Amino acid sequence: MAESAEKHKNERRRVGLVTGAASGIGLATAKRLLADGYSLGLCDLSDDLLRSFAQEIADGLVVAVVGDISDGRVRAQLLSEIEHRFGVLDALVNNAASGGEGADVSDLSLTALQRTLEINVVAVVALVQEALALLRRSEAGRIVNLGSLFGDEPVRGGAPYCVSKGAIHTLTRVLAIELGPLGITCNTIAPGYILTPMHAEEVEFQARERGITIEERYRELRAEVPLGRHGTPEDVAATIAWAVGPDSAYVSGQKISISGGLSFA
User: Fold this and answer.
1) What is each CA distance from 79 to 42, 84, 161, in whole angstroms?
2) In sequence order, which ranges of 65-158 are alpha helices (DSSP H)?
3) CA-based nearest residue to 239, from 218, 221, 260
4) Given 161, 193, 218, 250, which residue is catalytic?
5) pLDDT tens figures, 18-34
6) Beta-carbon neighbour count of residue 145 at 10 Å?
7) Is this structure's pTM higher than 0.70?
8) Is 161 a catalytic residue?
């Protein structure tokens, strides 16, 4: 009994990296992983990040960088601080994303499309490349990419976002093949209708376009979900926590839908 307690005492905290951690799914994921005993590197465009994790930063459990994850200098700073403070990376959660321009392909700005792909796809690939040295120091490296229901079920006017998330689903399978021999798993978490700031903006836009109230649009969306409700960021965070934990050790290359059954409806 005493030997077991001593062993647990000497175990190091696992280390995670979560992008887009100031709100929504990223914030809920960071809070969940901290509660599960992780130390974290965090990044977001908003300096709300520093206020949300002020105590954990002061306690040395979190390093946080405010900036655009598609900027190589921001990624370099974040990884440098993680290496300096923790020396290893066990779990990379690629959550940061842009909703992109709302337009049909015929009217789409190619500049806007390139920007969405830069944030949602290219920055993910770059961060995986740059974090790989730290991930290889882990005995159980994990990568989780945030996809979307709309990566498989596209909607009109959402081409940039839908295309980017479809690419993420494929990227996950590629990484599972390539990184498996290194002992690193990679999976996609694909949320459906989740109560996040990004989803709220989309619902407001849809309601305005159709001339209905926001609450009417929310009711319509909930009616599509077999479980009859929107998901919460905490619903998604719980699955991410499983995907980066020990119980998912033999799961790789998978797309896990968090949609209340919507993808089967």
Assistant:
1) 10, 8, 27
2) 72-85, 110-117, 123-135
3) 260
4) 161
5) 999 999 999 999 999 99
6) 25
7) yes
8) yes
